[in-house]
Design brief:
InterPro entries: Methyltransf_25, Methyltransf_Superfamily, SAM-dependent_MTases_sf. Pfam families: Methyltransf_25 (PF13649). The chain has one domain: Rossmann fold (3-Layer(aba) Sandwich). Helices cover about 40% and strands about 25% of the residues. It contains seven helices and seven strands, in the order H-H-E-H-E-H-E-E-H-E-H-H-E-E. Strand 1, helix 3 and strand 2 form a beta-alpha-beta unit. The radius of gyration is 16 Å and the shape is globular. The chain starts with a helix and ends with a strand.
Length: about 210
């Protein structure tokens, strides 16, 4: 079944980056400050959208061996393919986060930026992340933080949109990761304009 978020992003792909320019600039800047990529690694961007993060990584000469851009929206993915067509180390995948079909222990790092609140089955998505990571691998999640004043903002958003919205608080997100076999490495909470955010870096429990 097609998800509301997939349909919505197919419709708005053309105007996505222009409309959300300041928001994307802010969240991508924070994300890039807190991730690490080592020589020869295989990476997965679970919800890559138009490929903006991948473009930024190539501009920074990130030393990855392979980067897989996945997104459930075919239209968003087409934008990414056109934008990054000249990068042989980047491949593309059109799957939902809850049904990723890759070999187990395939990725060194998994990125999830501005997308976790759209996932309809978040526990299943995290279980997939766990199975896809190599020993010592890391997952990085930056998303909305349903706490403080943003609880009201989030409620307004859920009333206004037809998309699936399932925003977690920072504490709830940590609990979910713990339950799915992850150990927190680096965490951050902050506010920007009327948004609350969290960033979490986690690894597989040993």
């Amino acid at each position: 079944m097609t998800h509301y978020s997939e349909e919505a992003f197919n419709r708005k792909a053309k105007r996505y980056e222009h409309r959300w320019e300041a928001y994307l600039n802010h969240t991508h800047e924070i994300f890039l400050k807190h991730i690490e990529i080592e020589e020869g690694e295989t990476l997965l961007d679970v919800s890559s959208g138009t490929g903006l993060l991948a473009l930024e990584l190539t501009e920074l000469d990130a030393p990855f061996e392979k980067l897989v851009l996945n997104d459930p929206s075919k239209t968003m993915l087409e934008f990414a393919q056109k934008r990054l067509a000249d990068h042989p180390k980047i491949t593309f995948s059109n799957q939902t986060a809850e049904k990723l079909e890759f070999d187990d222990r395939h990725f060194d790092r998994i990125f999830c930026l501005n997308a976790f609140h759209f996932y309809s089955n978040q526990k299943h998505a995290l279980e997939h992340f766990h199975s896809l990571l190599k020993p010592g691998g890391r997952v990085y999640i930056l998303d909305w933080n349903r706490s403080g004043f943003f609880r009201f903002v989030n409620k307004v958003i859920t009333w206004w949109t037809t998309e699936n919205i399932n925003t977690r608080s920072f504490v709830e997100m940590q609990d979910q990761l713990n339950e799915c076999g992850f150990q927190m490495i680096n965490v951050l909470e902050w506010s920007w304009r009327y948004w609350n955010f969290f960033f979490i870096e986690a690894k597989l429990k040993t």
